[in-house]
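User: I'm writing a tutorial on reading structure tokens. Could you give me a worked example: one chain, its sequence, then its tokens, then a sentence or two explaining what the tokens reveal?
Assistant: Sure. Here is the example chain.
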Amino acid sequence: MPSRFHQSQRSTSLSSRSVKLMTCGSVDDGKSTLIGRLLFEANLIKEDQLAHLKNLSKRHGTSDDQIDFSLLLDGLSAEREQSITIDVAYRFFNTSIRSFRIADVPGHEEYTKNMVTGASTAEIAILLVDASRGLSEQTRRHSFIVSLLGIRHIVLAINKIDLINYKSDAVSKIVSEYKSMAVPLAFETIMPIPISARHGDNIIKKSQKTPWYTGTPLLQYLEEIEISCSEPDGGYVMPIQWVNRQNSDFRGFAGTIAAGSVKPGQKVVSHPSNQTTTIRQIIFGSEILPSASTGEAVTVVVNNEIDLSRGDVLAAAEAGIDVSDQFEADVVWMDSELGFSGRPYWMMLGSAKINAKITKIKYKYDLNTLAKLSDTKLQCNDIASITIKLDQAVPFLPYQTNRKLGGFILVDRFNLRTVAAGMIKHSLHRAANVRQQHFDVNRAARESLSGQKGRVFWLTGLSGAGKSTLANEFEKALHKKGLNTYVLDGDNIRTGLNGDLGFTDADRIENIRRVAEVAKLMVDAGLIVITAFISPFKPERESARALFDEGDFSEVYVDAPIDIAEQRDSKGLYKKARSGEIPNFTGLFSSYEPPLEPEVHLTTSILTIEQCLTKLLDYFEKLQ
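And here are its predicted structure tokens:
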């Protein structure tokens, strides 16, 4: 009799029968073993794979003389040596009913970001619980994460029932406790199935050892479950990936449909330009289609010219697309570098790439208790609620409505690392009520009256490098030339405007953000602004530069080695820092990131103050 299973190939086409699963649970609850057992029972492991698996089991197995099915997925040598899953492993297979993709994700807390990767596209979560130990902190943690990421269907796989002699009482207790715990997580379905992944009970067929279990085996349940769409079809939605101009007479818009369906004659709206048109043609390759739906990559041609480019969205009016430049969102921090409010990033949302800043870390989640904790920084694997500001309004949908238009990543603009994955909760429409007010007397008028051009000279370097001394001499020289200037000095600013800030990394970032905004206003007033701040972090200096027009910002690196700066120590700061009076002191206990390509580099350990001033004035004259 032919098996109802056959190996699947990865395909770019979508099937209504295709289901994306993930397994999760505490370490050693049997996630990898379950998937390996499932594939084995379904005759999906080839003979050479099985032979290799038997060999691995002898060397690395944890199941005595039996096959250790977890090794089928724990492919990394580090995983085999530690008997844990570190990375996300995927397996694909078909039955005669459905095709499946299973993501086996790590259970350790420190690999939360890997779990998020596996959960981000899953529709069903198989949550394993060790029957002999019951619910754990990781059970709560993983349940919260899958709920946060929009998974609405849970299979509560109560594993290792052989360790409790297949008794129903312990299973019933676990089910009752879990359903009570999961009430606030709003899952649509929770299906408890008692299993033994090691021995195959209730995996493919019902086990005779659990006559008290009246439900279906795991695989049968996965084949039969009706998965309600987690992204309601409110209408056609397609982020534009590129504008297709095959020739001067053809203009189409290419992208992958994120929701709904579309056909010729259908009325659509462009976002954010909010122009209305109708679909004339739908093209796939050289073929003209009568319609297209979710997941299909197509080019659409519309009946009249509209303002639409990469990063914009074409959608049906009923799709409910919103446009905003401020959001409240949940993020999973994935980078080893800390995240702070005020840091500049790129947000990748749909096909758009936008400058973004975290404006506030509202709270972090304690995933074991679900408590909300106050903090000013984000560490790797933290999950937090934040507010985020973009430099332009973008079209979006909340993540719980549409993952494609509500899910984003944040990318470090300098090293191009992905630092966070995020889920938009809703827009903050306060920005819609704030408009730039224009006045007749503008910067050009002020500069014309004063006969000078406003600009900023941003002096950066360690404490003791000579920034304030040089700023003072530079201002005196410009003042003698009859120019209007102002020095923004670190110590002076901290006695007033920034008197509420300390010296943590988060406070240093906010310190520089405020100074940059003040400098921008002064440049708009036509002043020559000289700032003297350590400004230790490159992203904040680059963020400050981005506020100004090309040529209006000059970075001046006042460079002195730490030993020379400490010898000078005119304010006694290094001495206080080393005695513990000043924590987080830059150069000793907090890093300084020197500029790589400053407009002016002044090595004050070699040059005298007069020589530095001459070099800076020469640069100034070249700007005139």
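What the tokens reveal: Residues 446-623 form a domain with the Rossmann fold fold (CATH 3.40.50.300). The chain has 16 helices and 31 strands.
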